[in-house]
TrEMBL record, chains A, B:
GO terms for biological process: thiamine biosynthetic process; thiamine diphosphate biosynthetic process. It comes from the Bacteria. This is Thiamine-phosphate synthase. Mg(2+) binds at residues 73, 92. 2-[(2R,5Z)-2-carboxy-4-methylthiazol-5(2H)-ylidene]ethyl phosphate binds at residues 140-142, 174, 194-195. GO terms for cellular component: cytoplasm.
Length: 221, 221
């Protein structure tokens, strides 16, 4: 695992929601407001556009190397850009194969939406996955194919088991400033946000508001 | 370039057109009928399914190692499976990046639909790309986003320039047994077929018919 990954406020990009602003522009603002990690996700882009997008976001993050960059799904793009890691869903490459391709230093995250899916990650050889994305906390229009909502109780149960198994956990799905404190208080190591930052009129202010809402709620390790 | 790539009758798979038969089942039949190379293409599959599909096709091809296996777009899947190469379109990773990831021995193909796109491939450093897919010869329902049809004259012009530039060329798009001879006579090194084999009631017979139709038409190097 890439040392120093800070998942507290983890931005997952959505190209359409950022428009008409560019994704790198929104990322820059969000980082200035307190985003601690960035995942480039664009399931509709071809690999050529995704490579260019990832490089552009990487350029924006150059002055803040503590804000790690993760690529959703595209291991080839992560290899070409030297991104800090890859996040895979249940339809993407298995974490074991991602680890084979990326080597021991990469941050590998896996989406899990149920106890059974978490069990599969926990059963992997140590060092295969570093982080689980607990998803969705609530249903969200940005990921209509996601499973049933975990809600706070489900998130708390999965976060506890992830921590006991040595995995970082982040919660994702429909989290806004109004709910960030409650989600952060479930025992996760961070929250992932898409719409609440990408669609915000002022992404920097949105990130500041989220960080303020979460203050003191995350349980230190 | 992977030595011994034989592009004469190059099958590009389409999972939906093969159904209800599996892709490996159709590939096995097609190879028994004379297909000389196979490209696994499934633009709708997630990487996990594509990896499984590629491994299943690879298993089917194990007894015929002279029939090379190419993966469409997915460099990560090619790395994991040790496939013989990757074919990229204009929206996929640039050939230079694919070569970086796959190393000198892989077969790298690039789709080109115009003289300008062929110029870009010819301008790459020697050894970057090995093959161009001239596309589409005719418009085809299996690739509705393809550009204007090259028809026979356009295919002939591009094939001639590809050969002069040291590249293999194959023609793709709407080729059937009725047109295979005319396309093979344009100076390409092979023809690519999707529907005419994947949707055939008897894929082995379809491949045999195509090989018979092309007999004597391809110009040896």
């Amino acid at each position: 695992m890439r040392a120093g990954f800070d998942p507290r406020l983890y931005l997952v990009t959505d190209t359409l929601l950022c428009a008409p602003r560019s994704v790198p522009e929104v990322v820059a603002a969000a980082v200035s407001g307190g985003v601690t990690a960035v995942q480039v996700r664009d399931k509709t882009a071809g690999r050529r556009d995704l490579l260019a997008l990832t490089r552009a976001v990487q350029e924006v993050l150059r002055p803040t190397p503590h804000v790690r960059l993760v690529v959703n799904d595209a291991v080839d793009v992560a290899l070409l850009t030297g991104a800090d890691g890859v996040h895979v869903g249940q339809d993407d490459l298995p974490a074991t194969d991602v680890r084979t391709l990326l080597g021991p230093d990469a941050l590998i995250g896996v989406s899990v939406g149920s106890p059974a899916e978490l069990d599969e990650v926990l059963a992997l050889p140590a060092g295969t996955a570093d982080l689980v994305g607990l998803s969705p906390v609530w249903s969200t229009p940005t990921k209509p194919d996601a499973g049933a909502a975990l809600e706070l109780d489900g998130t708390r149960a999965l976060a506890s088991r992830a921590r006991a198994g040595g995995l970082l956990s982040v919660a994702i799905g429909g989290i806004s400033a109004a709910t960030a404190a409650a989600v952060a208080g479930t025992g996760v190591d961070g929250i992932c946000v898409v719409s609440d930052i990408c669609a915000a009129a002022d992404p920097a202010a949105a990130a500041r508001t989220l960080r303020a809402a979460m203050a003191g709620e995350l349980v230190a390790r």
